[in-house]
Amino acid sequence: MSLSSIIKNIPKAELHLHIEGSLTPELMWRLAEKHSVSLPYASVEEIEAAYNFKDLQSFLDLYYAGAGVLRDEDDFFILMWEYLTRCAEENIVHTEIMFDPQTHTERGIGFDVFMPGFLRAIQKAETEYGISSYLIMSFLRHLPESEAYQTLEAAKPYYQHIKAVGLDSSELGHPPSKFERVFKKAKSLGFKIVAHAGEEGPASYIWEAIELLDVDRIDHGVRCQEDQALMAYLKEKQIPLTVCPLSNLKLCVIDDMKEHNIVQLLDAGLLVTVNSDDPTYFGGFLNENFEALHTALNIDESTIRALAANSFRASFLPAERKKALIEQVEIAI
Ligand SMILES: Nc1ncnc2[nH]cnc12
Ligand SMILES: [Zn+2]
C-alpha cells in the first residue's frame, strides 16, 4: 500500500478550514459573472497566478476581495457543498468549519442569507456522504471588539447551529487581549473557544489566548517553540494546535517545508493536527498537506496515523464518537 493511499484511506477530521478560503478560482469566476461583479482578473488562470503572498496581510487582501462574489443563499450553499464534496473524496468524515460573518455583514449580507445556505449544504452532506460538521463563527481581529459583540448578537437566531467562536484575520498588532470581554461572553453562552495565535504573532499571543480567552484550541500556534514554558504547558494540558503546513509555506511563516516544526511538536508530546486553512489559496486541500509533509519531512505511516488520530482527539465531537473514530484510524488500510 503506497503512502498516498494510506493518506487518502485513513478517516480524518479537519479542524481549521475557512469556508471563504475554499472558494475555487472557477467558482469565483462563475459567481462574478452571475452577479456582474467586476474582478481585477481577465481569466481563471490570472486569478490563480495572483496567489503569491509575502505575508498574511497580502493574502487577506485578496481573500476578502474574493469573498465579494458571494451574494445570495445559493452562493453560500455551493461554496459549502463544493468543500464538503471534496471532504468526501478525501475521506474527511468530520469537519469543524470557520466562517467570517463580518466579511459578509460589512457588505450588507446578513446571517439570514449565508446561514441557510451553509446549513442546507451541511445537512445534505450529512445525508449523502455521512459527514458531520460543526460551525465556528470567527471574529475579525482587525475590527474593534464592539463589532465582535454586534456579530455575537446578530448570530442569536443561529446559536444552536454554531459550536465554537474563533478569532482570525491580521494577527500582528491585534492581540487576543483586545477581545477578552467578548470571548468571556461567548464562553458564558456555552460556545467552545478557538483563536488564531502564534502564526505570525509571538508566543506571548498564545499565552494571552490561553489565559485571557480560555481557548479550547489554538489555531496555528507554530511559534510556541520560542517559549519552553509554553511548550511544557501545551503538553501538560494537551491544548490542541491546528497546524496548517501549506499555509505556513505560502504565507512565508517558513521558507521551505523542510523547516516545518510539526514533527518536532508532535515528538515533544503536543497535540498537533494537520489542516488546510484556505486550501484554494494555498495550493492544497487536506490530503495535499499530508503529502507535502511526507515529501519534505519524510513522515511515515505511523506519524500519519498519529496525526489523523489527533484530528479526532482535538475535535469537539462527543467522547464516544471520538473513541470509535480513533479506533478506525488504527485499523484503516
Ligand atoms: N491563515 C489565516 N490567518 C488569519 N486569518 C485568516 N483568515 C483566513 N485565513 C487566515
Ligand atoms: Zn486560519
Automatic annotation (TrEMBL):
It is an enzyme of class 3 (hydrolase). The record marks 220 as: Important for catalytic activity. InterPro entries: A_deaminase_dom, ADE, Ado/ade_deaminase, Metal_Hydrolase. Residues 11-330 form the Adenosine deaminase domain. Binds 1 zinc ion per subunit. Zn(2+) binds at residues 16, 18, 196, 277. Pfam families: A_deaminase. The active site is at 199 (proton donor). It catalyses: adenine + H2O + H(+) = hypoxanthine + NH4(+). Its EC number is 3.5.4.2. It comes from the Bacteria. Keywords: Hydrolase, Metal-binding, Nucleotide metabolism, Zinc. Substrate binds at residue 278. One of its GO terms (cellular component) is cytosol. CDD domains: ADA. GO terms for biological process: adenine catabolic process; hypoxanthine salvage; nucleotide metabolic process. GO terms for molecular function: adenine deaminase activity; zinc ion binding. Its cofactor is Zn(2+). Catalyzes the hydrolytic deamination of adenine to hypoxanthine. Plays an important role in the purine salvage pathway and in nitrogen catabolism. NCBIfam families: aden_deam, PRK09358.1-6. Belongs to the metallo-dependent hydrolases superfamily. Adenosine and AMP deaminases family. Adenine deaminase type 2 subfamily. HAMAP family: Adenine_deaminase (MF_01962). This is Adenine deaminase.
